[in-house]
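Lab notebook, design round three. We kept the backbone fixed and only want residue identities now. Task for the bench partner: fill in a sequence for the structure below.
Input structure tokens:
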């Protein structure tokens, strides 16, 4: 299988190409989102993709969207044969990797739920003892479980890395009621996923979500609980103090930390064995999610 790293739908207007997803205009109320096989890490997109990654991400998101019923989402249609023209005429680009969605007004914050101390949260903790302005107990190790899950919003950057911010800053930007509601929903979704994945011996360490408005209603958009947006750890091999064995993009980040790449210059291609191992990890977590939902 060849990696699909770019898309082009003749007769359709591409609105945006993100690190992974291409977004097309459909009509005034709908968009078409295609999950490509592009892979990014440390805010860089790598020159080679991971064959089938977009299909795995799209499948995983759709499973969660279907099962999380306490908040509405943007999904309208998943079957490419029901997509409007011209999209349905290009199955090689849309089959199993695209969704027709409602157009929403995106809320420009990443909504992050953390149950464990890892990633940017760990980096913030080591310098300030806190994350997003919330003071944490002293003496925690990397990958330690937090006393309780926390909501840590981040600014939605157009380029570069999203920056952790405080609830007070979020409230000032979008209002107290909306900010507090987003925190509540984010933690509710995280707790739902965390409890479900325990049945598959998987720890959901954290996840980031995106929301938007349709009218005055907040809905879930973008992706949901994928290995690109969440950390999934093998519970049987979990031990704090180091980066745990995972079924997510952390595998690529950990590999890159062993290389001489400076994270600033254009990234080198990922080795074939890293590409294949990542694909296997994504497929394995998809199977685990499918088995419990």
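Proposed sequence:
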């Amino acid at each position: 299988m060849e990696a699909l790293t770019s898309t082009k739908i003749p007769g359709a207007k591409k609105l945006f190409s993100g690190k992974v997803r291409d977004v097309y205009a459909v009509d005034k109320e709908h968009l078409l989102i295609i999950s490509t096989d592009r892979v990014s890490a440390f805010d860089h997109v790598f020159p080679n993709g991971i064959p089938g990654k977009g299909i795995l991400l799209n499948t995983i998101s759709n499973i969660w969207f279907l099962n999380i019923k306490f908040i509405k989402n943007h999904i309208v249609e998943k079957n490419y044969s029901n997509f409007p023209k011209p999209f349905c005429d290009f199955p090689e680009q849309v089959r199993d990797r695209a969704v027709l969605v409602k157009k929403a007004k995106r809320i420009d914050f990443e909504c992050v739920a953390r149950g464990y101390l890892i990633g940017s949260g760990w980096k913030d903790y080591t310098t300030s003892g806190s994350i997003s302005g919330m003071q944490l107990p002293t003496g925690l190790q990397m990958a330690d479980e937090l006393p309780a899950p926390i909501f840590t919003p981040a600014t939605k950057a157009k380029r570069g890395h999203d920056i952790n911010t405080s609830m007070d800053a979020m409230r000032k930007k979008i209002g107290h009621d909306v900010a507090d509601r987003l925190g509540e929903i984010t933690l509710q979704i995280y707790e739902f996923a965390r409890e479900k994945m325990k049945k598959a011996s998987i720890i959901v360490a954290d996840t980031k979500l995106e929301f938007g408005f349709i009218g005055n209603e907040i809905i879930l958009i973008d992706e949901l609980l994928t290995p690109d947006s969440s950390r999934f750890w093998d519970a049987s091999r979990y031990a704090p103090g180091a980066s745990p064995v995972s079924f997510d993009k952390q595998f690529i980040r950990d590999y890159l930390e062993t290389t001489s790449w400076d994270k600033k210059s254009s990234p080198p291609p990922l080795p074939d064995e890293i590409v294949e191992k990542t694909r296997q990890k994504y497929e394995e977590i998809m199977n685990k999610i499918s088995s419990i939902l």
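Keep this in mind before ordering anything: The mean pLDDT is 96.
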